[in-house]
Amino acid sequence: MEYKSPLPQRLREARTRKGISQRELGVRLGMEPSSASGRMNHYEKGRHSPDFPTLKRMADELGVPIAFFFAEDEVSAELIDLIAKLSEKEKKKLISELTKSLS
Question: If pLDDT is split at 50, 70 and 90, which confidence band does 32 have?
């Protein structure tokens, strides 16, 4: 069984949620304006995968954690995004509450 990376879909989702074009995202990441749209299109189509430093810059620019790009389903992606926005104290409280509910 072949598994497809969720990265292309998540990248497109985060970019459109931010309301920017492929070209604009690429330019913000430091790509040449003439090739930015094409490069981003290749990432969103799954033809190429960005290296880790590029992926980190994408995540920072789009306001999502890197883990968001690898969530296998929509609910997990949303949870990852929401959890990343919590403070460390709130994250620890959530872990405690989840641990209790799963026991």
Answer: very high
- Residue-level pLDDT at 56: 97
User: Terminus-to-terminus CA distance in the chain, angstroms?
Assistant: 34
Rg of the chain over Cα atoms, rounded to whole angstroms, equals: 16
> How many other CB atoms are found less than 10 A from the CB of residue 90?
11
Q: How many residues does the chain have?
A: 103
CB 7 within 8 A of CB 21: no
By CB atoms closer than 10 A (0-12, 13-18, 19+), residue 58 is buried
Q: Which residues of 13-29 are buried (b: 16+ CB within 10 A; e: fewer)?
A: bbbeeeebebbbbbbbb
Please choose, from the candidates 4, 11, 23, 3, the residue with its C-alpha nearest in 3D space to the C-alpha of residue 50: 11
Query: pLDDT tens digits for 37-76?
Result: 999 999 999 999 999 999 999 999 999 999 999 999 999 9
